[in-house]
């Protein structure tokens, strides 16, 4: 799915030097086929690792077609508030349609990881899945600074992103589907960046997916 390229007829969205995926229908199909649909196993695992609970205010950075965001809303409940932002208006359109179909109160809007349009100290939790690797190094630094800014004191962030699998056969097959360049990225590179951004209690570990690991941190 990460081979998708910007389409000539893609809707205008906020400008970024990061990679933006506009083929929302294909992206959503492959996400669901990969077990990352709304309330699917991987989505539940990521939300549980993020420790989202009833009443939390949550921001999903680079939400794509909204599967993880909508899962977060089920954990935050009626008293919680969940926002999803993405640079691609096509992704936001698909996510909004899902929210309406599911009668979900989740709010989806266009936005950039490196320029979050929210006041300081807005969120209890910030999450991101399979998105940070699309940002070049300088934008990662800006994005982590912005995440720190919009978190409440004591709030936390959880990022799930690619790592190389321990299964050699899968390592040969997976690049066919996601592109060989994606295997050069690693969530294990992120803990130091979170620490440098000012987050504390930085931790990392595996998820239930052999190709995804998590990195987390807390705002002092």
Overview of the molecule:
- It is a single chain.
- With 220 residues, the protein is of the alpha/beta class.
- The chain has one domain (35-218): 3-Layer(aba) Sandwich (Rossmann fold), CATH 3.40.50.150.
- The protein is 34% helix and 22% strand.
- The chain contains 7 helices and 7 strands; from the N terminus they run H-H-E-H-E-H-E-E-H-E-H-H-E-E.
- It has helices spanning 24-33, 41-49, 67-76, 89-101, 137-150, 168-178, 191-197; strands at residues 57-61, 81-86, 107-110, 123-129, 151-162, 200-206, 212-218.
- Strands 3-2-1-4-5-7-6 form a 7-stranded mixed sheet, sandwiched between helices.
- A hairpin with a 5-residue loop joins strand 6 (200-206) and strand 7 (212-218).
- Helix 2 (41-49) packs across helix 3 (67-76).
- It is globular, with a radius of gyration of 16 Å.
Topology diagram in text:
Elements: H1 24-33, H2 41-49, E1 57-61, H3 67-76, E2 81-86, H4 89-101, E3 107-110, E4 123-129, H5 137-150, E5 151-162, H6 168-178, H7 191-197, E6 200-206, E7 212-218
Parallel strand pairs: 1-2, 1-4, 2-3, 4-5
Antiparallel strand pairs: 5-7, 6-7
What is this entry, summarized?
The chain is an alpha/beta fold. The chain contains seven helices and seven strands. The protein has a seven-stranded mixed β-sheet, sandwiched between helices.
Which key phrases capture this entry?
220 residues, seven-stranded mixed beta sheet, 7 strands, 34% helix
């Amino acid at each position: 799915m990460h081979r998708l390229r910007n389409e000539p007829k893609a809707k205008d969205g906020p400008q970024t030097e990061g990679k933006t995926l506009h083929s929302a229908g294909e992206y959503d199909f492959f996400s669901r086929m990969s077990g990352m649909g709304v309330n699917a196993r991987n989505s539940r695992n990521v939300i549980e690792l993020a420790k989202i609970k009833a009443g939390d205010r949550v921001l999903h950075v680079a939400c794509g077609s909204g599967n993880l965001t909508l899962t977060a809303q089920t954990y935050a409940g009626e008293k919680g508030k969940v926002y999803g932002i993405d640079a691609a208006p096509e992704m936001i359109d698909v996510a909004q349609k899902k929210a309406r179909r599911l009668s979900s109160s989740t709010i989806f809007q266009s936005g950039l990881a490196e320029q979050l349009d929210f006041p300081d100290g807005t969120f209890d939790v910030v999450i991101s899945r399979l998105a940070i690797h699309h940002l070049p190094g300088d934008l990662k630094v800006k994005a982590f600074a912005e995440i720190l800014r919009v978190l409440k004191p004591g709030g936390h962030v959880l990022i799930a992103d690619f790592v190389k699998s321990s299964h050699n056969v899968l390592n040969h097959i997976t690049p066919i589907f996601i592109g060989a360049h994606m295997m050069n990225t690693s969530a294990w590179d992120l803990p130091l960046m979170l620490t440098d951004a000012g987050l504390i209690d930085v931790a990392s570990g595996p998820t239930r997916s052999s190709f995804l690991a998590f990195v987390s941190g807390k705002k002092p």
